[in-house]
Specification:
The chain is an alpha/beta fold. It is built from five helices and nine strands; from the N terminus they run βαββββββαβααβα. Strands 2-7-1-8-9 form a five-stranded parallel sheet, sandwiched between helices. It has a four-stranded mixed sheet with strand order 4-3-6-5. The radius of gyration is 15 Å and the shape is globular.
């Protein structure tokens, strides 16, 4: 059986990281942590949120599971990070998700999950308006592309209930 990657996309502050932590803590699903050349943000933890590297540390493209360049910085994960069997979760952008499903569908089963959240809720969570606009300006995939869409406009409990409900459908 091919390894299964639960590929998670969503706007900044929508709940992607929370979803990966929920899957890890509640279902023992390991997380593929991406590498990035962007500076670490306040509150981020090395090795948990990302691996922060310099451009001279970039590996060969063949080693990369997915790669994206955004805002002048590179982000990627490595094939070697995916467990040989079983499943894992991975936060990825739309472009990376398309590449992953197109190039590696023979190697991995990809379950595409979108986490959606209204701009008003994102603002109330402290997401800067320019980050919200940046995410709006990104190319988006149609809802048909996803195996599940999880809405996160309410309480944490409501989000967790949505996660459970959507995963039962898969």
């Amino acid at each position: 059986m091919k390894p299964i990657i639960i590929a998670i996309i969503g706007a900044s502050g929508s709940g992607k990281t929370y979803l990966t932590k929920y899957l890890k803590n509640e279902l023992n699903v390991p997380t593929v942590v991406s590498y990035t050349t962007r500076p670490i943000r306040l509150g981020e933890i090395e090795g948990e949120d990302h691996y922060f590297i310099t451009k001279d540390q970039l590996p060969a493209k063949e080693e990369m599971l997915a790669y994206t360049r955004f805002g002048g910085h590179e982000s990627f994960a490595l094939h070697m990070q995916v467990p040989a069997t079983g499943l894992c979760s991975y936060v990825i952008d739309e472009e990376g998700l398309e590449v992953l499903t197109r190039k590696y569908s023979d190697r991995y089963t990809v379950i595409a999950i979108a986490v959606k959240c209204s701009p008003e809720v994102l603002l109330s969570r402290g997401i800067a308006p320019e980050r919200i606009q940046r995410d709006r300006d990104r190319r988006t995939l149609t809802e048909n592309y996803f195996d599940a869409i999880i809405f996160n406009n309410g309480t944490l409990q409501e989000f967790e209930e949505s996660i459970i409900r959507e995963f039962k459908k898969l």
